[in-house]
Amino acid sequence: MIPASFDYQVAGSVDEAVRLLSEGGGDAKLLAGGHSLLPLMKLRLASPSLLIDIGGLHDLSYVREAGDAIAIGALTRHLDVAGSSLLQREAPLVAHVAGQVGDPQVRHRGTIGGSIAHGDPASDLPAACLALDATFVIAGPNGERRIGAGEFFRGFLETALEADEVLVEILVPKAAGAGWSFQKFNRRAQDWAIVGVAAVSNGSTRIGLVNMGSTPLRSTGAEEALAGGASASDAAAHAADGLEPPGDLNASPEYRRHLAAVLVRRAIEEASSRHG
User: Fold this and answer.
1) 269 HSE (CA, 13 A, CB side)
2) What distances in angstroms separate CA 198 from CA 15, 55, 56, 65, 243, one per listed residue?
3) Residue 180: beta bridge partners?
4) How far apart are CA 37 and CA 46, in angstroms?
5) Residue 141: count of CB within 10 angstroms of its CB
6) pLDDT 10s digit of each residue in the chain, 276 long?
7) CA–CA dist 209, 229 (Å, integer)
8) Nearest CA to 267 among 193, 214, 173, 192?
9) DSSP class of residue 182?
10) pTM for this structure?
């Protein structure tokens, strides 16, 4: 389908993008790689009156050390996240997951910030950020603020970002010695995951889930079972506790619960084997 008509402006800075968003009155959207927004516009599920192109803000494309964290600029392409030697050394889960996103075309154009700001529960990187307890840096008319990944995802395609705010940076804690795993089950390599699991083991185990609810979320049932001394298999049986996975043409809710248990067990075992 063809999107509804819209105005288009190019932002020369984050401040200008914030100003344009404020002037848009809640009916403006940011455009970076476009792989999340444009499909929605073509289906008329999103009809912004103004698109603000921030793709040229190259100062938001970087991977660098920031004390005990790795700072990733929001406009860093998936390809560059996947290829970062710093991330491969200090937070390998992020690099690995970025390399699993979509296909080469998507990884060359899509950005990590766009994936996170979109808040799609079927996306891979939000689950990795939840497992790593990442922090998101947000710029708005009143300056910058920070919010943890656990508080960022609010509802289906809904995040803590206000209408006049821009996600500018992702802070990922360094975890060079941590065990980690990413398990994804899909019909074809480039498809959205029917279910995915990101796990990090570093003293305790954190587990992020893909496509198991209306938001990216954690498997608190499995985490709590592990903390209580359960085996990987016993903990995985609690992978979907309290969750309401969606049903669609690819899988029923019951099948997603089964997949979650299988993939969480595999993720726990692989993360444990890599720990240290």
Assistant:
1) 12
2) 34, 28, 31, 23, 16
3) 200
4) 8
5) 12
6) 677 787 899 999 999 999 999 998 878 889 887 767 777 777 776 777 888 999 999 999 999 999 999 999 999 999 999 999 999 999 999 999 999 998 888 899 899 999 999 999 999 999 999 999 999 999 999 999 999 999 999 999 999 999 999 999 999 999 888 999 999 999 887 788 999 999 999 989 999 999 999 999 999 999 999 999 999 999 999 999 999 999 999 999 999 999 999 999 999 999 999 875
7) 21
8) 193
9) E
10) 0.93
CA distance 248 to 73: 34
Set out the domains of the chain in order of their start, with CATH numbers.
7-53 (3.30.43.10), 58-172 (3.30.465.10), 180-274 (3.30.390.50)
What are the phi and psi torsion angles at 151 (to 5°)? -105, 0
Extract the tokens encoding 18. Answer: 């914030």
